[in-house]
Amino acid sequence: MMGRSQRAAGLVLHACLAGVPLLAFASIAASLERLSLRLYTFFGVHHAIAPPWVMPEDYSRLLNVAFFVPVGLTLAWWLGARWGWAMPIAVFLSLAIEVFQRVPEVGRDSTLDDVACNVIGATLGVVVVAVVRSPTATADPSG
């Protein structure tokens, strides 16, 4: 029987999995590319708080990392004791997206760099769940 927490994780996971294709293939994907440029302009030009070597591609990489944190987090949460499957599933999902982006009609760039950033993001999400579920995190502080 599935607990309330796992059902909630399943709902969030479905939202993440529905959002992944939207962000990867829908018209919003072009908006995300423009967001990288706007972040670069804001942090690198207007406020000059980013190092001068940080380029728009770097913001795009950070967005790819951030894009997959919820995927790794919800996969690990939903899988419970089988959380070790979260990373292979996230890697497969990222590779599937990149392969599909290679289709000429899709008109998106496909790179292994994106896969690496997605895997880093998913890893961060899985690590958060692992830390929260660790025995030391759940130990009774009163002894």
Q: How many separate domains? A: 1
Helix content: over 70%
- Structure class: mainly alpha
Helix count, per DSSP?
6
Biggest beta sheet summary: none
**Radius of gyration over C-alpha positions, nearest whole angstrom:** 18 Å
Q: Categorize the overall geometry.
A: globular
Straight-line distance between termini: 31 Å
Classify the beta-strand content into a percent band.
under 5%
Uncertain runs with pLDDT below 50, 5 residues or more? none
Q: If you average the pLDDT, what whole number results?
A: 79
H/E topology pattern = HHHHHH
Q: Say how many strands there are.
A: 0
What topology does this entry show?
Blueprint: H1 4-25, H2 28-46, H3 56-79, H4 86-101, H5 112-133, H6 135-138
Helix pairs in contact: 1-3, 2-3, 3-4, 3-5, 4-5
